[in-house]
Amino acid sequence: MQAGTRKKVFFAGITAAAFGLGAATGTHAHPGLLTRPVAAAVVPAASPDSADPTGTPGGTLPSFVSLVEAVSPAVVHVKVVSIVKTSGPEESSPFPFGEDGPFPSFRLPQRQQPPSRQLGAGSGFIIRKDGVVLTNNHVVEQAKEITVALSDSREFPAKVLGRDPKTDLAVLKIDAKMDLPVAQLGDSDALKVGEWVVAIGNPFGLDNTVTAGIVSAKGRAIGNGPYDQFIQTDAPINPGNSGGPLFNQRGEVIGINTAIFSQSGGNIGIGFAIPIDVAKQLVPQLETEGHVTRGWLGVSIQKLTPELADSLGINEAQGALVAGVTPGSPAAKAGVKTGDVITTYDDKKVGEHGLPSLVAATPVGATVPLQVLRDGGVKTLSVTVAKLADEEVRDAEAPGKGKWGLALRELTPEERAERGLEDGQGVLVTAIEPGSPAEEAGLHAGDVVLQANRKPVGSVEALRQEVGKVEEGKHLLLLVRPADGGDRFAALAAH
User: Contact at 8 Å (CB) between 374 and 286?
Assistant: First the structure.
């Protein structure tokens, strides 16, 4: 990478109005896209009729013909329609003379552009014969309508069974009224760097595109979230591949294609896929609950570098350095202290496995051993894992009410002190969904919800309970404290 260039990681989804052979109108389209080969398989076949892609007899390169024929029917095209607010010349400044002009109280009435329909596309694959489909969360999170197209061109409306933004997974359901072909799920933990892999998806809207490459690395953290452990591959992945499967040489899904590293948004040979073992742990919860319940330890950690290890008197830079412990948390109750180095969790080495992922996968209420290095010695602690507070108020609690569009989390003691709040008071708004009731009511990320339906709330769970009491057709009344101060009420109308 040249000096001065910036690292860019793109989701491998595509949002486009259309894509045709006459003109490339997708938002990620490259000016010369159709003048050269697009997403072609990069591995020449030594024998077109080879039925065994797992071996390379005589030093020849493998053929993926039989593999692709076997697995392609389970790969689907996910088409979405979202409603977005548009900006344009009609949205001029309300101050025609400038905010510091001679008539500061004079404002022009604002004319809002009507929302517009935006088309998007991604990929997915069928994991159960009754029509359960796995894809990426970012493919469908803003969708108002979802259509799943099969490899035989049949199309079916789809509904979302569950989404998990933290791992970027989503589970969909279609009703084909017949058994469907199913992709076999493999073992991503057993995957080796250097193995051949095949990606199938719909880059730039080009259905059933097959590309091939190798596993370049495992356990990659790309800043996507606390549970990053991506498979890196050089199999060409482009916008529209999001949610599609990454197959091993046995035709088993070992990853879900999700993101690419690029300066332009197009493939340069560095793609990332979610390990299928992560998805296998979460799919049952997403199907039945619509969201994921995770374990919580209550520590802030950082990577143990050789420099930090040396300053702490530790011979090997392996483990997670505890930079902070939340008061009253399971870690605090177990005796974990700032400066400890967590080396094993539930008898698994921390480093080979990320601590956040290990904790998140632990059943709530389970007690597990924790080994830490402290003052040159080794201590074994016992910690009882609590529930990580849900970060989103979902419409699943109150069917038919529509989505409120609030993403939330608990406030830390420091944040409460900064905002002048007492212990156990308020819940922080971390994000607002565009076009949602929360946005229409004027809420913003950084607001603190103090009350819901005139009842004080100090946790996401307390707010969830109050939201569940809102009757059909009624408003959700919130008392919020904006970041710039000045408490106010906001009434959210369900869509």
Answer: no
Provide, rounded to the nearest whole percent, the portion of the chain with pLDDT above 70.
Answer: 77
**CA proximity to 322, closest of 362, 356, 366:** 356
Structural element, H or E, at residue 190: none
Number of structural domains the chain divides into: 2
Question: What 8-state DSSP symbol labels residue 334?
Answer: H
Give the Å distances, CA to CA, from 272 to 22, 75, 169, 428, 437: 31, 18, 14, 31, 34
Asked whether residue 383 falls in the same domain as residue 401, the answer is no
Residue of 123, 242, 262, 357 marked catalytic: 242
Q: What angle do CA 130, 197, 67 make, to 5 degrees?
A: 55
Q: Which of 168, 234, 340, 346 is catalytic?
A: 168
168 is a catalytic site residue? yes
pLDDT of residue 460: 86
What is the rounded distance in angstroms from the CA atom of residue 329 to the CA atom of residue 325? 8
Please list the rounded mean pLDDT of every run of 10 residues in the chain (495 residues). Answer: 46 43 29 30 38 49 89 96 64 47 50 72 96 95 92 95 92 95 95 96 91 94 79 93 95 95 80 94 92 87 80 80 86 91 91 79 91 90 85 38 74 81 87 82 89 88 84 83 81 77
Instruction: Show the domain range for 409.
Output: 395-493
pTM: 0.64
Q: What is the 3-state secondary structure (H, E, C) of 442-493?
A: CCCCCCEEEEECCEECCCHHHHHHHHCCCCCCCEEEEEEECCCCCCEEEEEE
pLDDT at 399: 35
Q: Which candidate, 216, 177, 260, places its Cα nearest to that of 11? A: 260
Q: Tens of pLDDT along 250-289?
A: 999 999 999 888 777 777 889 999 999 999 989 999 999 8
Q: Which of 50, 63, 123, 138 is catalytic?
A: 138
- The answer to whether residues 429 and 472 belong to one domain is yes
Pair 251, 65: CB distance under 8 Å: no
CATH number at residue 375: 2.30.42.10
User: Which tokens sit at 1?
Assistant: 């990478």
- Six-digit token pair at 232? 């890196």
